[in-house]
Amino acid sequence: MGLIHIDLFTTLDGVAQAPGGPDEDAGGGFTFGGWQAPLMDSVVGGQVEAGMQDLDALLLGRRTYEIFAAYWPQQKGTIAELFNRVPKYVASRQPHALPWDNSMQLGPDIAAGLHELRARHEGLHVIGSLDFVQTLFADRLFDRLTLWVYPILLGSGKKVFAEGVVPANLTLLEPVIASPKGAVLQRYELAAGTPGVGVMGNGGPEV
């Protein structure tokens, strides 16, 4: 069965809204669209490309799909070629025009649709798509979580972990990587069970 990866860029206070540009998403009066741009560097770029090596399908929310469909077909380079080539699946409750080549809408039963996609693809990557991501978190319908955490605080905006996230354990897959401009890459895998609790004692935690 294939894996569902969630790939997000987030500020230190968890804001993941509109990292790519001023016109990406001004919902809620958000005024910091494009906050990621001043903090990009070669380490971030290289690791983003490396993280896409297993990608053989994109799984996107409607709004992110519209942004990508208007941008990537006009671009060149490794990621553009990959995104334009692979199948694109759009999670939306309403029918929508899907102008980007090789695009199709995910059915209304998200869990069943993802089960079918896991059997068809090795690496399904969800990028952005914050509303859809909340559904994946709430229903534990993901396998890997990759976060680029940037050293800024915005105070408001759509968050990575909004209301509805269920308690879950995650396993860090590799040592964190820090970029010259202070972004930190963290790659996690969803683990079984829910977080444990204990009492901190002089000799360490007692559980």
UniProtKB/TrEMBL annotation:
<dbReference type="InterPro" id="IPR002734">
    <property type="entry name" value="RibDG_C"/>
</dbReference>
<feature type="domain" description="Bacterial bifunctional deaminase-reductase C-terminal">
    <location>
        <begin position="5"/>
        <end position="172"/>
    </location>
</feature>
<protein>
    <submittedName>
        <fullName>Deaminase</fullName>
    </submittedName>
</protein>
<dbReference type="InterPro" id="IPR024072">
    <property type="entry name" value="DHFR-like_dom_sf"/>
</dbReference>
<dbReference type="Pfam" id="PF01872">
    <property type="entry name" value="RibD_C"/>
</dbReference>
